[in-house]
Amino acid sequence: MIRATRVLRRDDLSGGEIVDRVVLDHGDRHRRRVAMRGLGGTGFLLDLPEATVLDDGDALVLEDGRLVWVEAAPERLLEIRAPSEHALRRLIWHIGNRHIPAEIGVDAVWIADDHVLAEMVRGLGGSAEAVERPFRPEGGAYAGGHAHGHGHAHDHDHAPGGHHHHAGA
After folding, report:
1. How far apart (Å, rounded) are the C-alpha atoms in residues 165 and 169?
2. Rounded to whole angstroms, how far apart are CA atoms 84 and 82?
3. Residues 56-87, buried b or exposed e (16+ Cβ, 10 A)?
4. pLDDT in tens, 73-129
5. Do residues 67 and 16 lie in contact, with contact meaning Cβ atoms separated by under 8 Å?
6. Contacts 24+ apart (CB under 8 A), 40-44
7. Domains and their CATH numbers in the chain
8. Which of 30, 106, 117, 121 is deepest in the core (most CB within 10 A)?
9. Where does this protein have coiled-coil stretches (predicted)?
10. pTM exceeds 0.90 for this model
11. CA separation, residue 15 to residues 23, 65, 66 (Å)
């Protein structure tokens, strides 16, 4: 089976024959090694040196130089808005405090659809509407967006300005 051994970032794409495309949701775009099949039927082994977040518009480079386009799949998300810039910043703080992936726009934030977080946002004066669109969350300070520097991912609340500790941290 032909292998894809590197990623060409969308900003670096120049030339190259795009022979197929894969459409992946947010979770499936964080990969190192997995068998894949493009929508056009091209089968290949993604075989990267380390786990990598594939971004919408990137291309996977096959061993023979051909390219497979990466496209972000539409997902069910919450689009969060607030009545003011300050109120949106406050909502972003509360969302970030839960360590969940978030895509931050100029006047909205998108997170995975979650009824508990939707109620929290509404309780804090924001709006949370279900939408379907590609999800492109921030990579995070430690890359990948799945963990946040402690070597694991988790979901819990922290008091405003508070600290939390983990064994071995």
Report:
1. 7
2. 6
3. bebbbbbeeebbbbbbbbebebbbbbbeeeee
4. 999 999 999 999 999 999 999 999 999 999 999 999 999 999 999 999 999 999 999
5. yes
6. 42/68, 43/1, 43/2, 44/1, 44/2, 44/3, 44/4, 44/68
7. 3-72 (2.60.260.20), 73-169 (3.30.70.790)
8. 121
9. none
10. no
11. 21, 11, 10
